[in-house]
Amino acid sequence: MSGHVEKNAQTVSPDMPAMFDGMKLAAVATVLYIIVRCLNLKSPTAAPEITCQDTALNRYLLKSCSILTKEYIPPLLWGKSGHFQTALYGKMGRVSSPHPCGMRLYLPMQDGATATFDLFEPLGDHLTGDDITMVICPGIGNHSEKHYIRTFVGYSQKQGYRCAVLNHLGALPNIELTSPRMFTYGCTWEFSAMVSYIKRAFPQTRLIVVGFSLGGNIVCKFLGENQANQEKVLCCVSVCQGYSALRAQETFLQWDRCRRLYNFLMADNMKKIILSHRGSLFGTRSRKMEIMDLSRLYTATSLMQIDDNIMRKFHGHDSLKEYYEKESCVHYIHNVNVPLLLVNSSDDPLVHESLLTIPRTLAEKKENVIFVLTLHGGHLGFFEGAVLFPQPLTWMDKVIVSYANAICQWQKQQPQCHQATDCTELKGKA
């Protein structure tokens, strides 16, 4: 009996290692396939897709700002994944991000709120010799202390730009709210107050308006709300915004590209910001918020629920639809007449491709607009690098400064023009 068992064991055992080796190979192949798919390694690199009219100014800009027409090459191993690009921006920040030294200013608002912004002086002369100020609006819940803002400010200072960075109302953890209100998706009051201060304090300066993500919506809405807001503005750059919150809300509930997960994570972050100002927003001073709103906040799992139960009430909107309609720049951006650069990425997990018809159509109709769409970059990522480690400066940082430099040089060549809108009109007729 024992001999029979030994004989069977001897006849079976030689096949077992081969079978296990096959399983190992299959497992490795599966993991490699998943990695290749998730990291999008087979995706090619390419120059951005550019949509604009053929005008003298646009030809000059594309020639002077050559980075827009060259191939954007993200880090080889992970840079073709929009998720990795977005996660690295959001969690790891920039590599060795600088700590620019600035001054924080406080601006009292008419409703009792206190807007804050940080002012950074240039570290050298601008290439044109002129006084130019970057007025910058960060992304949702962000401020001047975020890595990507510090990196961009540090780079801009070295290029001779003064920088003014808005701190979204309620975003700074060490600054208390002075009224029962915080920032919203499209409220331009604080940004307007900062721009007005800069114009008063530096009457000789010209402005470069820059907005990131939600900040892009705010700056485009600000410029389009009133033609007077475009005075002294040389150009505007918007990066990775969604243009219409009403059209975006349905896509934000979809699981495609994990947008529903991003929605949950962003909602969780908004909860933390709101709850950190619980006393100001839900205390005795507040007439717009109730205890019931606070209980709904705890159970909210999406930005839309928070917007409906909390955010829209800061400005008295009757419904979520009305809030999204009135706070989205899509209804104002066509009024912007200064040179306007709109940048988005095809693999941005937060901005659905259907929203990109808005900037593309605008660039086709208006001669002052250039729409740039990259194949890779994620949401505010745009890292560059060889294989694994990204460079400190991103493609996005370089594009904004390069475009701003080109605009400043163009304006310098037009001494008869005293306002950016006049220059745009004249060159549009050229």
From TrEMBL:
Enzyme class (EC, first level): hydrolase
EC numbers, comma separated: 3.1.1.23, 3.1.1.6, 3.1.1.79
Molecular-function GO terms, alphabetical: acetylesterase activity; monoacylglycerol lipase activity
GO BP annotations listed: acylglycerol catabolic process; medium-chain fatty acid biosynthetic process; medium-chain fatty acid catabolic process; sperm capacitation; steroid hormone receptor signaling pathway
Main location: membrane
Keywords: Cell membrane, Glycoprotein, Hydrolase, Lipid degradation, Lipid metabolism, Membrane, Serine esterase, Signal-anchor, Transmembrane, Transmembrane helix
A GO CC term assigned to this protein in UniProt: sperm plasma membrane
Pfam families (UniProt xref): Abhydrolase_1
Superkingdom of this protein's organism: Eukaryota
SUPFAM superfamilies documented for this protein: alpha/beta-Hydrolases
Reactions catalysed according to its record: an acetyl ester + H2O = an aliphatic alcohol + acetate + H(+); a triacylglycerol + H2O = a diacylglycerol + a fatty acid + H(+); 2-(5Z,8Z,11Z,14Z-eicosatetraenoyl)-glycerol + H2O = glycerol + (5Z,8Z,11Z,14Z)-eicosatetraenoate + H(+); Hydrolyzes glycerol monoesters of long-chain fatty acids
Keyword Transmembrane on entry: yes
Span of domain AB hydrolase-1: 133-386
Keyword Ribonucleoprotein: no
Subcellular location: Cell membrane
Family named by the database record: Belongs to the AB hydrolase superfamily. AB hydrolase 4 family.
Physiological role: Progesterone-dependent acylglycerol lipase that catalyzes hydrolysis of endocannabinoid arachidonoylglycerol (AG) from cell membrane. Acts as a progesterone receptor: progesterone-binding activates the acylglycerol lipase activity, mediating degradation of 1-arachidonoylglycerol (1AG) and 2-arachidonoylglycerol (2AG) to glycerol and arachidonic acid (AA). Also displays an ester hydrolase activity against acetyl ester, butanoate ester and hexadecanoate ester.
Protein name: Monoacylglycerol lipase ABHD2
Protein source organism: Pygocentrus nattereri (Red-bellied piranha)
